[in-house]
Amino acid sequence: MPVSRFSKMPIPSRLKYFKIKAELTGSSRTDAGVHAFQNYFHFDLDLKNGRKKIEESIYHLNAILPGDIVVNKIYEVGETAHCRFDARERSYRYSIYTFKDPFLNDRAFYYPYKLDFNLLQEAAERIIRHSCFQSFSKRNTQVNSFECNIIESHWEQSETGYSYHVTANRFLRGMVRGLVGTMLKVGRNKCSISEFENILRSKDSSLADFSVPPQGLTLVGVQF
User: Fold this and answer.
1) Over the stretch 65-83, which tens digit does the pLDDT of each residue have?
2) Domain holding 212: CATH number?
3) How far apart (Å, rounded) are the C-alpha atoms in residues 212 and 34?
4) Known catalytic residue at 31
5) Cα end-to-end span (Å), the chain
6) How far, in Å, CA of 156 to CA of 171, rounded?
7) Helices (H), ranges, the chain
8) Axis-axis angle for helices 193-202, 117-128 (nearest 10)
9) Integer Cα distance of 65 and 3 in angstroms
10) Exposed e or buried b for every residue in 106-141, given b needs 16+ CB within 10 A?
């Protein structure tokens, strides 16, 4: 069940339209305020009317859901399919705008400071060389490993500002925001590339900067 705009979707114990008790399991968990262009959820459902009932349900579900959440399609999958554990890749984008714009206020981070794009890009390239991201995981997290396979990591520059793009097999709690906040310090020459490397290697999350707000972050897509 892909949804659009906000990945913080209410998880009801009872699906009102289908009149069943069910829990939705999401493909990616994010902080409140983070957006999503694409996310997936799975739930168990036994339909008497089969495919026709599923196709009709999309219209009715969207009528019930709030305006900032939309169901695009419902897929029938195998009994053992799992949205979270079967996902191979997840892609995020963090958006920054450098000139005040009220239309971007709830979907990007206003950051009116001069940034060295080359330094941002170099820091992003260093990230791909690493696999342990304990330094960029918030504490009190329930994971057994801090290993992540980073597939893509780069910055883009536009007329309105900057955006960071990252794809990995998994992400840790607060990881993308920690990476962005720390790289912004690099871009402002408040942290050197060598110091950024040291933070990556340190496994000490107190050295990273997690202060960037959630509204700049968007879950762009999930691959299975």
Assistant:
1) 888 888 888 877 777 878 7
2) 3.30.70.660
3) 12
4) yes
5) 13
6) 21
7) 50-64, 117-128, 175-187, 193-202
8) 30
9) 11
10) eebbbbeeebeeebbbbbbebbeebeebbbbbeeee
Helices (H) and strands (E) in the chain, counts: 4, 11
219, 7 contact by CB (below 8 A) = yes
Alpha-carbon span 206 to 213, nearest angstrom: 17
Q: How many domains does the chain have?
A: 2
Instruction: Calculate ∠ Cα 177-117-171, nearest 5°.
Output: 25
User: 206 versus 88: which is more confidently predicted?
Assistant: 206
Spatial neighbors of 205 by CB under 8 A, at least 6 apart, are 134, 135, 136, 137, 138, 139, 178
Instruction: Tell me which residue range forms the domain holding 46.
Output: 1-87
Q: What is the pLDDT of residue 163?
A: 98
User: Residue 48 — pLDDT band, cuts 50, 70, 90?
Assistant: low
Last residue of a domain, one of 87, 122, 156: 87
What is the reported pTM? 0.82
What residue type is 167 in one-letter code? T
Nearest to 28 by CA among 214, 178, 205, 220: 220
Average pLDDT over all residues of the chain: 86
Computed from CA positions of residues 70, 76, 82, 86, in that sequence, does the dihedral angle turn out positive or negative? negative
The CA distance from 216 to 136, in Å, is 17
